[in-house]
Design a protein that fits this description.
It is an enzyme of class 2 (transferase). This protein is α/β, with parallel strands linked by helices. Helices cover about 35% and strands about 20% of the residues. Helix 1 packs across helix 3 and helix 5 runs parallel beside helix 7. The structure holds uridine-5'-diphosphate (UDP).
């Protein structure tokens, strides 16, 4: 169903969610790297949801620092480039951890690639326990495997952690039939199926992430991370977003 501008009205409640943001969301207007005030702003958004008692998993991309595909396009061996991309996600996770802890929220950075001096290795049962203790779990280093993306990592961990939905924070308030920043008549989907996303190449997440969500019936909520209070608002049943479902 396509709507234009109308708020999605259905109130939903979640007790455990996955928040996926791209690395680029952390770079502010500077075009590269980490912009600490932006990291802090997003941490504040996470706190408002944490204050509701919702258990929060996070996956942050690495595209603000390094992407494997960029490296391989410049002649670097792909798997090496991908490992560099995965390491970039660890830096972003640590930055988010610091920002959340400055707000008094307990967190754990949990890496798919063990690096014991820096963060915890991924052990599913231990991660679940952290969530039960209301610690925000930031899953770093993607899936730990090259040729994947952090969208797929977020979907994988969301399934493993039994999250009720993935919240994909973007620059726009949902999925549109064309780029709303380029086309003023673009229409926002209120809901859209996984298959439509794949068939129409709607660019919500990469195809393997969408397929993994579809196969496990995991809804994806696409919303604007630039909208102050947007993340919390959706958990309260307010605001505009697109729900990707089966
Ligand atoms: N990456 C990977 N395996 C994973 C997740 C990520 O190899 O499971 C690498 C890949 O090179 C990717 C980079 O890490 O380009 C950064 O992740 P991503 O592109 O998903 O970041 P985002 O676009 O969300 O900032």
């Amino acid at each position: 169903m396509i709507t234009q501008g109308a708020p999605a009205s259905k109130a939903v409640t979640y007790s455990r969610v996955m928040l996926k943001i791209s690395g680029e969301a952390l770079m502010g207007d500077q075009g590269f790297g980490l912009h600490p005030p932006t990291v802090q702003r997003i941490a504040n958004e996470v706190k408002t949801v944490h204050d509701l008692g919702v258990e929060i998993c996070m996956v942050i991309g690495g595209g603000n620092i390094f992407r494997g595909l960029q490296g391989s396009a410049q002649g670097m061996e792909r798997t090496t480039a991908d490992y560099m991309g995965m390491l970039a996600t660890v830096m972003n996770a640590l930055a988010m951890q610091a920002a959340l802890e400055s707000l008094g929220i307990f967190t754990r950075v949990i890496s798919a690639i063990p690096m014991d001096q820096v963060c915890e290795p991924y052990i599913r049962r231990r991660a679940v326990r952290h969530l039960e203790k209301k610690r925000v779990c930031i899953f770093a280093a993607g899936t730990g495997n090259p040729y994947f993306t952090t969208d797929t990592a977020a979907t994988l961990r969301a399934n493993e952690m039994a999250c009720q939905a993935i919240f994909k924070g973007t620059k726009v308030d949902g999925v549109y039939d064309m780029d709303p920043r380029k086309h003023s008549h673009a229409k926002r989907y209120e809901t859209v199926t996984y298959d439509e996303v794949l068939q129409k190449h709607l660019g919500v997440m990469d195809a393997s992430a969408i397929a993994l969500a579809r196969d496990n019936d995991l809804p994806i909520i696409v919303f604007s991370l630039d909208e102050p209070g947007g993340f919390c608002g959706i958990l309260r049943g307010e605001g505009t977003y697109t729900r990707v479902h089966g």
